[in-house]
């Protein structure tokens, strides 16, 4: 079991999650983060910290595609442990449907 970052992180990227993870297993893309499933120790601390409710345990149904995406990009994006400012328009994107298709970016983020 692991926790995974899901669609609502895209263009929200509040980054509250990175500060609480005891094993520093968040990785940063251009407009979202992912969790490395093999590094996550399933502590669950990050889940309630996400203002966008984007972090879910992989025991929830229909998260296989997100688990695959987290694993794939955690191997190529830089590690991130220090919280930075959320995007100025993060609130406007919170809860918008279809973000994966329209706005997911495979580009790496800045990292620490
Ligand atoms: S707190 Fe939530 S929305 Fe923000 S970066 Fe972490 S997973 Fe994404
Ligand atoms: S569940 Fe715990 S170990 Fe896994 S990403 Fe969240 S804070 Fe880190």
Automatic annotation (TrEMBL):
The keyword Iron-sulfur applies. This is Ferredoxin. Residues 91-104 have a biased composition (Basic and acidic residues). It holds the Pfam family DUF3470. Residues 91-112 are annotated as: Disordered. Keywords: 3Fe-4S, 4Fe-4S, Electron transport, Iron, Iron-sulfur, Metal-binding, Repeat, Transport. It comes from Methylocystis bryophila. It comes from the Bacteria. One of its GO terms (molecular function) is electron transfer activity. Coiled coil: none annotated. Transmembrane segments: none annotated.
